[in-house]
């Protein structure tokens, strides 16, 4: 097993990427939220206080009436009362988003259930880029099966760049189309007509690409059943909930040509259970998947493969640590209870599974490659997890 004592990534170092998330990305995000929704003085004060606390103070607990207080008392017991920058970045960033929901009154009172990120998700669904993505579904009809599968996988992969948290402060000119690792050849043979789990990341454009891929898996028989895991409530800015899946599906079915056909097939698949939306409180946990509870472990164990979308899922899958980049992906995911594939554009420091040559070349030629979204990776671990048998 890999050495899980590789040091965790934290926000302590001024100028580092995680430090910038708290000092640049979060203030910009809160300005956008306040412009998009007319929160009153109480909510705006709470947001300002969250910004102040998360940069300069100790971590406060959730209020006593928080519906998930018991969960967070366990997830945060070592961290409450300590300075935010000293904590693992994965924990502190996740808790920031949980506290952002608290500040906007998402769980109690008149603003209950109002997704603070909904205006951004809606704008993306209504935008030209989304319309172009819908229209592009028609173009794939002329492709061979192999070309279509490659296009669907690639679109789902790079769709991960459409994430508002990232675009708020991204300075990169966009994707280079370069893959730092590509295990896609190992993915297809895992898809033999059984259950596939897709752990969703962002709503709107990324989700559209994910749904198109899922439609293909079901229609081609590559998967007999797909479980699409979404967040139980809003999370890192554009993370997809069931509401976002339905909104995306509505745009597909209201479209024309192949978009409408994909929408109709997926709607039918939802009705007859071949496509199942599911969630779990651990989807919003500030912890690596290594610490997942047994019921979630059993869900993942039942799948022929679990496809993890996006950067945050990668951080949770591999462990948000300063791994040497050549640490084998199969080793850091050895605990996972079944075959697992990561489709991720690289937007934060953690990376594993590179060849020594790739690691050296990327660091030398594109020093910002880990955080600029210029590169992506497809990594696959084909075996079942160590010490865990299917159905146990
Ligand atoms: O939507 P994704 O791909 O999980 O990305 C989330 C983004 O936010 C971060 O958590 C940092 O704020 C990075 O991991 C990434 O830039």
From TrEMBL:
GO terms assigned for molecular function: metal ion binding; phosphatase activity
Record bears the keyword Hydrolase: yes
Alphabetical GO biological process terms: DNA damage response
Keywords of the record: Hydrolase, Manganese, Metal-binding
Co-factor(s): Mn(2+)
Domain of life: Bacteria
Catalytic activity: beta-D-fructose 1-phosphate + H2O = D-fructose + phosphate; beta-D-fructose 6-phosphate = dihydroxyacetone + D-glyceraldehyde 3-phosphate
Family, similarity comment: Belongs to the damage-control phosphatase family. Sugar phosphate phosphatase III subfamily.
Protein name in UniProt: Uncharacterized protein with ATP-grasp and redox domains
Species this protein is from: Thermocatellispora tengchongensis
């Amino acid at each position: 097993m890999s050495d899980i004592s590789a040091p965790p990534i934290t926000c302590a170092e001024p100028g580092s990427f995680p430090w910038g998330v708290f000092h640049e990305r979060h203030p910009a995000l809160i300005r956008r939220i306040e412009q998009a929704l007319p929160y009153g003085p109480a909510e705006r004060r709470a947001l300002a206080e969250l910004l102040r606390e998360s940069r300069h103070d100790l971590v406060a607990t959730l209020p006593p009436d928080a519906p998930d207080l018991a969960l967070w008392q366990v997830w945060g017991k070592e961290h409450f009362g300590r300075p935010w920058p000293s904590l693992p970045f994965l924990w502190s960033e996740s808790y920031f988003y949980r506290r952002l929901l608290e500040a906007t009154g998402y769980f109690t009172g008149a603003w209950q259930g109002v997704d603070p990120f909904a205006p951004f998700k809606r704008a993306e669904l209504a935008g030209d880029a989304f319309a172009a993505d819908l229209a592009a579904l028609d173009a794939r009809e002329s492709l061979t099966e192999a070309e279509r599968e490659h296009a669907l996988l690639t679109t789902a992969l790079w769709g991960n760049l459409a994430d508002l948290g990232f675009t708020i402060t991204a300075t990169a000119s966009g994707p280079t189309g370069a893959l730092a690792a590509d295990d896609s050849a190992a993915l297809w043979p895992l898809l033999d007509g059984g259950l596939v789990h897709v752990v969703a990341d962002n709503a709107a454009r990324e989700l559209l690409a994910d749904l198109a891929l899922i439609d293909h898996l079901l229609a081609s028989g590559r998967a007999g059943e797909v479980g699409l895991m979404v967040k139980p409530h809003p999370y890192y800015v554009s993370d997809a909930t069931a509401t976002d899946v339905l909104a995306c599906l509505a745009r597909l079915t209201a479209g024309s040509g192949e978009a409408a056909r994909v929408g109709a097939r997926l709607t039918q698949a939802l009705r007859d259970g071949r496509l199942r939306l599911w969630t779990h409180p651990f989807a919003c946990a500030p912890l690596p998947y290594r610490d997942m509870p047994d019921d979630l472990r059993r869900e993942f164990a039942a799948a022929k493969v679990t496809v993890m979308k996006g950067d945050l899922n990668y951080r949770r899958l591999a462990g948000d640590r300063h791994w040497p980049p050549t640490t084998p992906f199969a080793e850091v995911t050895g605990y996972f209870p079944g075959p697992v594939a990561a489709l991720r554009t690289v937007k934060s420091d953690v990376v594993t599974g590179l060849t020594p040559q790739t690691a050296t070349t990327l660091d030398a030629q594109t020093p910002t490659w880990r955080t600029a979204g210029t590169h992506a990776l497809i990594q696959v671990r084909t075996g079942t997890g160590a010490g865990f048998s299917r159905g146990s």
